[in-house]
Amino acid sequence: xxxxFLELSGTCREQGQVHGEALKDLIEKNIQIYFERFEKxxxxxxxxxxxxxxxxxxxxxxxxxxxxxxxxxxxxxSNQGILEIAMLNFRYELLYHAIGKLQIDAVDGCTSYAxxxxxxxxxxxxxxxxxxxxxxxxxxxxxxxxxxxxxxxAFTEAGIFGGKIGLNSEGLGITVNGMYSTxxxxxxxxxxxxxxxxxxxxxxxxxxxxxxxxxxxxxxxxNFMIGQAQNSIMDVESAPDKYVQISPQGEVLSHAxxxxxxxxAEITEPxxxxxxxxxxxxxRMEALLNELKPLDVEGIQxxxxxxxxxxxxxxxxxxxxxxxxxHTITKTGVIMDLDERKLWLTNGNPCKNEFTEFSxxx
Length: 362
Ligand SMILES: [Zn+2]
Description:
alpha+beta; binds zinc ion; 362 residues; Arc Repressor Mutant, subunit A; 10 helices; 35% helix; 8-stranded mixed beta sheet; single chain
């Protein structure tokens, strides 16, 4: 099964309405999945989650009226309450943070990569990742013609406005990795993770995208890899008040779910007995990129299927040593050719699912 693909245009409200209507059933399922995760993993009941969501929504209205309108549109289109939709959109701050506080060994996530033109067969800038998350969460691909800024082509979860991982018509792209540090606190009410992804996809230059990520303090820690067609890639490790910019030492970059050098950045990560698994994926990715370059899309697809250190491999599968509610798998393998403005996505583990090519809507 391919990912659902939405073509969106008009105001943010109208885009949200079409998203909500088209993915109605998937959104209902995601709401149920996240409330279950909040209860099982973060020990937060539905009413508590919605109470926290409401506080965040008040701040969001001041931070971005466009994103606020987008959430309202999804709620209307899917016939769900605005708080339920807002919960999905704030789940990075609300859930990831709450789980991190309770289970220091539950840090899990994704493996990102980027190639400068010297490392790709067609001399294009290519970025992407395996995005690892809850096995049952429903996702979609969206292309958006925006009246105010660049057009987007992105991967998102059903019910999350804008896009999470994606590229735009300026040839600028973004990937994401979940991370923690000790200063994380959702009650800081800074611009949320998914709003920052949306604003990066609305950026015309690397400088604008960087300003979105680090120009204001954050509530919670995250890693972003950004790149732009014709020779520009950068990784940004962002903690609430500090950040680290990492440029490629050679022709490639890789990142997973830990700070590369937290000591020199004076950032404190909570002790995590499973940190070595993130380190393994990051190092394995870098080694494969360097060994196999120059790479084309097919070559990168093979790397995203890699099973070394299975099930905690680049292509992630459920780990039988963990309780079922902590299982994560690779939900999508992502390749973005920023010069071509093209995106390839799988719907599920890359070892078992075909890559589908998506192009920007003109
Ligand atoms: Zn696999």
